[in-house]
Amino acid sequence: MKAVFKRDLVLWLIYSVYLFVLILPNLIMPKDTNLPWSVKVVHVLCIIISLYPSKLVSVYVGVPTLIKKIVYNEGYWSSTIIKLGISIILGVILYRTALYFIIYPYIYHMSTKSQDFFSIGRFLSNFADLTVPMLLFGAIWLYDTRLKADQEKAALELQFLKNQTSPHFLFNALNSIFGLVRKNDEQAAPALMKLSGILRYLLYESVVSKIALSKELLVVNEYLDIQKLRFGKTLQLSMTTLNDTNDLMISPGLILPLLENAFKFGFSDQLQCIIVDIQMTVNTGKQFMLTIKNHMSEANSSVIGGLGLKNLTRRLQLEYPNAHKYDVNSENGYYIVQLKLSLI
């Protein structure tokens, strides 16, 4: 609200300067040549102040309704046009009142007897003057409202993607642990405990826009521990760890979909093992780089990724515009994902 007030205040100040420059030459007439400049300035300010009520009414009564109708499609066009028409009529009446009872007799020293208050021509002329602030504020408000609407839409879409990721991840993670439960493996209970910690992170800590990279990496390790319990000796995992993240912040839950995809599609029936290589680095420019390389089985050679990766791609577009690079390649039977992020 304060930002909106400051914006409008600046606009009115700019518009007042415009009026001052526009009106002042009209007061430099032969009969006013002996008037001091201070008096002329006071006269101009009186004219501007006298006309302000009409301009405020014309701007604030009808224009906001029109903007909301254009951007959010609120209400009906009939009511919007009626309200806009009322604001224009009231504005012109106030404008004529200021001219008729203040400006003409006291500033220009003109008799109002010869002035027709309800002259259609003068009404149209006064309306033309009112359109300047209406168009000025309308254009600025339309831009700001559209920008706000786009931000709200992006925020809702981002929240939807995050909400969609949690149940999708839960479904795949439970499938991973199901094999352990089915075999009555003693590792099933520890795996479920680690899964509960990951879900707690996704449900409660991922609601913020950014989280410490160190926390994200802790959850990554929890997920890798689950896969170690699941695959046992059939897992060939190599990973570089980051010891110092320098308090870097990252959007929560970005890394998990990439890891999930690697373990979901990386098991080789021929080799009877799953090969995953994870490399993470952070350079001096606070650029985080993640490379995940996993064996791609023949059965899944045509599969690029599911819902998790589609959501990830869209999240990167929304949260890291012009600050990320996401590449997916296949080479010599391996699926390689590279993600670069400019972190803060």
Give the structure's gist in a few sentences:
The chain is of the alpha+beta class and 344 residues long.
Could you explain the architecture of this structure?
This protein has two domains: 2-150, no CATH class; 186-342, Heat Shock Protein 90, CATH 3.30.565.10. The chain is built from nine helices and eight strands. The protein has helices at 2-23, 37-60, 63-72, 77-107, 120-182, 188-205, 213-231, 256-265, 307-319, and strands spanning 211-212, 235-239, 249-250, 267-268, 273-282, 287-295, 324-331, 334-342. The strands form two sheets. Strands 2, 4, 5, 6, 7 and 8 form a six-stranded mixed β-sheet that branches. It has a two-stranded antiparallel ribbon with strand order 1-3. The chain starts with a helix and ends with a strand.
Gyration radius (Cα, Å) is 34 Å
The low-pLDDT segments are: none
User: What's the CATH first level of the largest domain?
Assistant: Alpha Beta
Secondary structural class: alpha+beta
Overall 3D form? elongated
Biggest sheet record = 6 strands, mixed
Mean pLDDT: 82
- Domain module tally: 2
Number-wise, the strands total 8
Name of the CATH superfamily of the largest domain: Histidine kinase-like ATPase, C-terminal domain
The amount of helix comes to: 55-70%
CATH topology of the largest domain: Heat Shock Protein 90
Can you tag this structure with a few keywords?
9 helices, two-stranded antiparallel ribbon, Heat Shock Protein 90, 344 residues, 2 domains, 6-stranded mixed sheet, alpha+beta, elongated, 8 strands
